[in-house]
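ok new one. same drill as before - structure tokens go in, u give me an amino acid for every spot. 97 of them this time. try not to just spam alanines like last time pls lmao
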């Protein structure tokens, strides 16, 4: 059931439903000061060739998922949404580099 279907069933608009459940949104105070320019630097891997950047992303992602599941590879593969055998293959490739 979509939000629109739900609203039609109970007889309200989506905006009314949001206001009923979350309450009115407070208006942001107007600022007269100019915003400071963003000084964030891009990720170093964004300057790398695609293949290298993808490998770096996969390495970081696998480390993150494994850490989140306390090193349990089966649960980590489920969390990542990929087959356990493919997850193990990615780990082998990462360790071979």
């Amino acid at each position: 059931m979509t939000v629109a279907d739900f609203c039609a069933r109970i007889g309200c608009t989506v905006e009314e439903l949001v206001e009923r459940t979350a309450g009115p949104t407070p208006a942001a105070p107007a600022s007269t000061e100019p915003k400071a320019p963003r000084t964030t630097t891009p990720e170093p891997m964004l300057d790398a060739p695609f293949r290298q950047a993808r490998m770096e992303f996969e390495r970081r992602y696998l480390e993150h998922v494994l850490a989140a599941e306390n090193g349990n590879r089966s649960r980590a593969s489920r969390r990542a949404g990929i087959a356990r055998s493919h997850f193990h293959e990615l780990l082998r490739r990462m360790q071979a580099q």
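The radius of gyration is 23 Å. and btw Residues 50-68 form the longest helix (19 residues).
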